């Protein structure tokens, strides 16, 4: 073992211990008493982990002896696994580090629009991850229910428009409720192809055909479709926007994402019946600035609208999520 | 900046860069192409983080140039914050690293039985953490509902026994349902004191007095209480065990935790009416061995029992949790 020690004048010291097998440890001692030990090794199989645990137990015991039990707090964090085929770290929308119980890469492809991953989680089933964002897991019926109005709507005989929704979850659940016609507009055929194969707990068989008795799936950008429908005067009882999360950006002047969001909202209101409802997911509850900015957009649409919101626990998200219901303000006659 | 480089014969190399302000970075390059960069600094305020992000952006750009864009995958993880007053890392029961949005230590005391922490989470409200285990947050009505039978039981006029439950959540919810009498047996007065002050979304005002119109709270070890009740022939319609998680140990021979669990179960069955129900939380769904061992205990009780289980998403747990319903097997007459 090689030892290198660096002494700062005012900042304590750093010792680095290097083993012949390629592993090493940093021992960082701060003058006010904080001691950090980081151990890095390669090829971490279970046996390696047990060895590391035993080593750390010894270090802990020895430290306690040295300080005569005068240690205020000891905390050992689970090892972080990097560089393997399986990536278990998918930070939350509010930027927290969370480790998923991913044990298999089921699907990993780049479409013309995004990177599409479907990873298997022991507890959540398959998880769809689009360009690094956890979209939906097979455990997440709570998401689909929330974005459909939390069971308070009657879809029987209704005209429904779904924007996005390529995982098929919303389509699958609404089709069960005997709507008149559901039109889903999803830009990315590869999302549909991946999900119909690997997210069947979410979409059932509804994506096996792009057309059914009471639904059709259009593989198109929703903007021109909305424009066409608006021009034709086609109207819907429900518009469900399952496109993208509210942008994390809190500086709307700096990018056009909010403009895009407002365009979608305006066009959606144009094809929404006067007593219709628009459902969408908002953002994680902690990104209050982004939520406020989204709500500000709602006051800037071509027609006056009102909205309500609901906070829902979506199992695979590891953070609470806000969903919106938006409707046209009823004017007194 | 000081640079130290270590070359292994077969294991690549490690460069350590040390700055005058006490921060340092490790650059670990493995021969097969994995590059790990770890940056450690002290006094991490927002400005420090922005600087770090900019630095890492530069490193990433430079690496991409050096490798002519021939990099398969780049992943940057959120910083881990250690040594501060607030500890944001409370690993799941299945050992995964998860970061909570803790922003305040509300309560932190050692009772004669355990360490009691109540930490404030931006999204979950106050969280009760007993000896390092996340017990319940103010967001976790789903836990309380699940351990009460998921809304399928009629508590009106019933005799209920709660084992543990010091956060008051179960007591508060059942008292609303007009039971005949609820007896709660909690060993730790300090848990009650902490929760009645800081977990009021969970317990309401029910812990303000240890006796109410239809409930009483006994500050006692539940084992002698159960023995007394069994001896007296006192019977309950519902016994709700909210004591402790199923031990993680999968070697029941090696410790007596399973014996303890079985003792509680046996005594509970003795005070449970023939058509009564016993509810308890089990464990996280991923600890399948521990769940199986628990179910094996159920076949070893003094009387034959049957059980069902349900998997529930408890918001603050960040993992799915299994709850059990156990009842006495009805014998044909």
TrEMBL record, chains A, B:
Keywords: Acetylation, Phosphoprotein, Polyamine biosynthesis, Transferase. The active site is at 242 (proton acceptor). The keyword Transferase applies. Pathway: Amine and polyamine biosynthesis; spermine biosynthesis; spermine from spermidine: step 1/1. The keyword DNA damage does not apply. Homodimer. Dimerization is mediated through the N-terminal domain and seems to be required for activity as deletion of the N-terminal domain causes complete loss of activity. This is Spermine synthase. It comes from Pipra filicauda (Wire-tailed manakin). The lineage of its organism: Eukaryota, Metazoa, Chordata, Craniata, Vertebrata. The gene is SMS.
């Amino acid at each position: 073992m090689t030892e290198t020690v660096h002494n700062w004048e005012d900042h304590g010291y750093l010792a680095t211990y290097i083993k012949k097998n390629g592993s090493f440890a940093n021992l960082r001692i701060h003058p006010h008493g904080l001691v950090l030990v980081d151990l890095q090794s390669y090829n971490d199989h279970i046996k390696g982990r047990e060895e590391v645990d035993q080593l750390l137990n010894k270090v802990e015991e020895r430290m306690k002896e040295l300080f005569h039990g005068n240690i205020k707090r000891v905390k050992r964090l689970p090892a972080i696994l990097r560089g393997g085929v399986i990536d278990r770290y998918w930070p939350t929308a509010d930027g927290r580090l969370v480790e998923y119980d991913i044990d298999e890469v089921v699907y990993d492809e780049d479409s013309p629009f995004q990177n599409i991953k479907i990873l298997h989680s022991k507890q959540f089933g398959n998880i769809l991850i689009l360009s690094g964002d956890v979209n939906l897991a097979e455990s997440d019926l709570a998401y689909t229910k929330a974005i459909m109005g939390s069971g308070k709507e009657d879809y029987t005989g209704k005209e429904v428009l779904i924007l996005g929704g390529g995982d098929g979850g919303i389509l699958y659940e609404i089709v069960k409720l005997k709507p008149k016609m559901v039109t889903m507009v999803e830009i990315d055929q590869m999302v549909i192809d991946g999900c119909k194969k690997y997210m069947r707990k979410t979409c059932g068989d509804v994506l096996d055909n792009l057309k059914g008795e009471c639904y059709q799936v259009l593989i198109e950008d929703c903007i021109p479709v909305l424009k066409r429908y608006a021009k034709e005067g086609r109207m819907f009882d429900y518009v469900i926007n399952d496109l993208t999360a509210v942008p994390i950006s809190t500086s709307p002047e700096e990018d056009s994402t909010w403009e895009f969001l407002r365009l979608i909202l305006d066009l959606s209101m144009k094809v929404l019946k006067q007593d219709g409802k628009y459902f969408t997911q908002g953002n994680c509850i902690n990104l209050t600035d982004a939520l406020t900015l989204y709500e500000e957009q709602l006051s800037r649409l071509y027609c006056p609208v009102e909205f309500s919101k609901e906070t829902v626990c979506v199992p695979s998200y590891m953070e609470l999520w806000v969903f919106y219901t938006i409707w046209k303000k009823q004017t007194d006659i």
